[in-house]
Amino acid sequence: MAVIKLKRPKLSWYEHLYLPAIIKGLLITFKHAVISVFGKATGSKELASSGLGVTMQYPEQKWDEHLPEYYRGIPALVTDEQGRERCVSCQLCEFICPPKAITIAPGELKSDDEWAKVEKAPKAFDIDMIRCIYCGMCEEVCPEQAIFLRQDYAMTGTTRAEMVNDKDRLYQLGGVREGLINKWNEVK
User: Fold this and answer.
1) Residue 37, SS3 per DSSP
2) Residue 127 lies in domain
3) What pTM was computed for the model?
4) Mean pLDDT, range 6-10, rounded to an integer
5) Does residue 183 sit within a domain?
6) Are 150 and 73 in contact (CB under 8 A)?
7) Are residues 122 and 148 in the same domain?
């Protein structure tokens, strides 16, 4: 096993002192404070309606119109145009979820159902929003495009049970997704 010796770079006399770095940081902070007080900060015109500068007054003002189109929010399940569930209980989203926020109980379709070729549909599908980190891995791994992350960012509840979205709530949030998105094709 080879041993590699590294030499530290030589520092000049002022690099040995920490005081110039602290002063530089304080000057940058002071500059930003002066800019925000005089209303030249980013977003100051949109947020100045409250008369309090660039601080957003949350319940009255929201980020809805400022959210980028790629924002990932609350996950939801969708149905197709005929009202059928797109989820086939493959459980890929459950396996890939880093905080283990998704729980799926697969169930079988009745043999007389015209879509029985799918074989499975979720009997129960729960997402614990307290654990969800909005990473979007569930959306990316879904082969049936059944789960999507909406642009909602504020989901509140007073108890832990209210923060667990069950299958009915997820379909209510997701609604109907018309057509295929073809997320793996270059032409979307």
Assistant:
1) helix
2) 75-174
3) 0.66
4) 88
5) no
6) yes
7) yes
